[in-house]
Amino acid sequence: MLDKVIFYFFAGIAVASAVLTVTRRNAVHSAIFLITALLATAGIFLQLRAEFLFIVQIILYVGGIMVLFVFVIMLVNLDVAVRQIQFARQKWVALVISLALAAQVGLMFWSSGRMPGQGLPVLAAAPADKLPPNSEEVAKSLFSSYLLPFEIASVLLLVAMVGAVVMAKKRT
User: Fold this and answer.
1) pLDDT tens, 117-159?
2) pLDDT at residue 80, rounded to an integer
3) What is the mean pLDDT of the chain?
4) Domain locations in the chain?
5) How far apart are CA 167 and CA 156, in angstroms?
6) Could you confirm whether domain 1-85 is CATH 1.20.1530.20?
7) Where is average pLDDT lowest: 3-7, 42-46, 166-170?
8) Are the beta carbons of 62 and 47 closer than 8 angstroms?
9) Among the residues of 48-146, which ranges form H helices?
10) What is the C-alpha to C-alpha distance for residues 147 and 152, in angstroms, rounded to an integer?
11) Residue 35 has pLDDT above 60, yes or no
């Protein structure tokens, strides 16, 4: 019972923050709501006993990517960009796409009742004591058989970060 309450709490925060991320006009407010949505998703990962994904979500996305977003927001003059672009027709496009998505979801629910087995398949979760310790297994595979690709990815990220700093540096 408590698991359901915690899940619905984090899911509600994630959905509300995602909606507020899209609907806010201020870019800094949108970034803060995106951080909140990512933290709520990390909470869901922790509740599912996926500790590695929980830590990666916080360190990589909340810590790294959002800092990059905030730096971009601070470097780019958003007032000029907002005045140059008009979004008049995009409301109708968004409405049509939303209706198409709702029709697809409705068709999926309608057709799932007509399939053999009557309804959507729901898989039973494995008991937590039978699951392997995922953080240790990920670390073993990451630092044994995937060590070279891991190091190559880290060097590429370092080069990209240095390139971003050089490109953002103002010329005097």
Assistant:
1) 566 566 676 676 776 677 777 778 778 888 888 889 889 888 8
2) 55
3) 80
4) 1-85, 135-172
5) 16
6) no
7) 166-170
8) no
9) 51-56, 66-75, 78-84, 90-112, 134-142
10) 9
11) yes
Contact 45, 15 (CB under 8 A): no
Compute φ and ψ for 85, nearest 5 degrees: -110, 130
Tokens 């039973």 belong to 124
pTM metric for this prediction = 0.58
Instruction: Return the DSSP state at 127.
Output: P
DSSP secondary structure of 1-21: -HHHHHHHHHHHHHHHHHHHH
Phi, psi for 132 (deg, rounded to 5): -75, 155
d(CA 74, CA 146): 37
pLDDT tens digits, one per residue of 51-106: 888 888 898 888 888 877 777 777 766 665 555 555 556 778 888 999 999 999 88
Q: Please, what is the angle between helix 66-75 and helix 27-47, to 10°?
A: 180
The pair of structure tokens assigned to 61 is: 């996305």
Spatial separation of the C-alpha atoms in residues 34 and 26, rounded to whole Å: 12
**Vertex 161: Cα angle to 43 and 61 (nearest 5):** 5
Average pLDDT on 36-62 reads 89
| Distance between CA atoms of residues 139 and 60, nearest Å | 16
Is-contact 32 67, C-beta < 8 A? no
Tallying the residues shown for the chain, one arrives at 172
